């Protein structure tokens, strides 16, 4: 009060105007938002409790987003199955989970070293999980590989490898799990796609094509199995700060080995993992985690494709000059 008493009359008048504007416009907006936010937090806590004891398969769990997903679901009391080709890294993640999160009861994560591109073995590997836990509640298809290159100079073998990892292996694992979900009349399939599953950009042809295919398959799966109480969520993040670009394939099949600036400045894996958890809890169907520019590009591709094509043509020329 002393502060206001010592104010000059013109300043005090300004504060009165601000306070009047806040009462007129601020309260009607702020109060409903605060109430909604409070109830949303409470509802999220209740939904998290329902995850306790759920069996969750996570592919690509040895690092990056897969590791972050393992943490958020294990913290909720889930029985997680960690899948990746790198056994040593999976063991590291398992130790980190058990040392970081104190869950009651404790469900030690299961490490399952597996190359999901060995499609013919997936049915057997899923059978092992069923023998241990008797069910699968959530499948998170996160494993994937990226690509950088000119499509005209890219070996078809590279296109096939990208499609095998990002599409065929994903749906093969889902098809191995889905009969058990249908039998129990419940289940949730989560596929980690990309913004490039919705729009294509230059020099990402093989990657974008694989993510387009995954998006389409999920849309069909969601519709066909809705009556079986099977939920399908596609999560499409923008750039995520992982080793994805480092491990990307080039046109001749070699490793790209470069951390792109866009990747380095992307979302943290923990942020995307938390967002994904919320999407599962809310049973959302299609989730986009991207900056406003990417969202505008998606709308532009739909509403004014000719302008979008022109922008991508300019981007391709610019990237060619910088290369």
Would you write up a description of this structure?
The protein has a 7-stranded parallel sheet, sandwiched between helices. The termini are far apart. Helix 10 crosses helix 11. The chain has 323 residues and is α/β, with parallel strands linked by helices. The protein is 55% helix and 11% strand.
**Biggest sheet architecture:** 7 strands, parallel
Helix-strand pattern:
HHEHEHEHEHEHEHHEHH
Radius of gyration over C-alpha positions, nearest whole angstrom: 23 Å
Content of β-strand: 5-15%
Rounded mean pLDDT score = 89
User: Which spans have pLDDT < 50 for at least 5 consecutive residues?
Assistant: none
- Count, helices: 11
Which strand order do you get reading across the main beta sheet? Answer: 3-2-1-4-5-6-7
**What is the overall silhouette?**
globular
Topology (elements, then pairings):
Elements: H1 2-5, H2 9-49, E1 55-59, H3 64-75, E2 79-84, H4 87-100, E3 110-113, H5 122-133, E4 138-141, H6 156-184, E5 187-192, H7 205-224, E6 230-237, H8 261-264, H9 269-281, E7 286-289, H10 292-303, H11 305-322
Parallel strand pairs: 1-2, 1-4, 2-3, 4-5, 5-6, 6-7
């Amino acid at each position: 009060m002393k502060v206001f008493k010592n104010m000059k009359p013109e300043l005090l008048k300004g504060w009165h105007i601000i306070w009047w504007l806040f009462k007129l416009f601020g309260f009607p907006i702020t109060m409903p938002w605060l109430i909604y936010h409070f109830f949303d937090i409470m509802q999220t806590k209740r939904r998290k409790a329902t995850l306790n004891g759920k069996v969750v398969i996570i592919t690509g769990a040895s690092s990056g987003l897969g590791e972050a997903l393992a943490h958020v679901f294990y913290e909720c009391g889930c029985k997680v199955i960690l899948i990746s080709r790198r056994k040593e890294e999976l063991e590291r993640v398992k130790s980190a989970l058990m040392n970081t999160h104190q869950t009651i009861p404790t469900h030690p994560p299961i490490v399952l070293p597996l190359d999901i591109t060995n499609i013919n073995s997936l049915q057997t590997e899923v059978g092992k999980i069923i023998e241990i836990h008797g069910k699968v509640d959530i499948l998170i298809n996160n494993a994937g590989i990226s690509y950088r290159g000119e499509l005209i100079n890219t070996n078809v073998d590279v296109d096939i490898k990208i499609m095998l990892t990002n599409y065929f292996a994903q749906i093969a694992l889902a098809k191995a799990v889905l009969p058990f979900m249908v039998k129990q009349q419940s289940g949730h399939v989560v596929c980690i796609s990309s913004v490039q599953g919705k729009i294509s950009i230059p020099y990402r042809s093989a990657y974008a094509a694989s993510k387009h295919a995954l998006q389409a398959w999920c849309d069909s799966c969601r519709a066909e199995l809705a009556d079986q109480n099977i939920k399908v969520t596609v999560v499409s993040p923008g750039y995520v700060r992982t080793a994805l670009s480092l491990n990307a394939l080039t046109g001749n099949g070699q490793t790209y080995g470069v951390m792109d600036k866009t990747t380095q400045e992307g979302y943290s894996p923990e942020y995307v993992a938390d967002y994904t958890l919320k999407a599962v809890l809310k049973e959302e169907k299609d989730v986009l985690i991207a900056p406003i520019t990417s969202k505008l590009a998606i709308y532009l591709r739909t509403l004014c494709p000719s302008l979008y094509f022109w922008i991508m043509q300019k981007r391709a020329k610019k990237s060619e000059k910088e290369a």
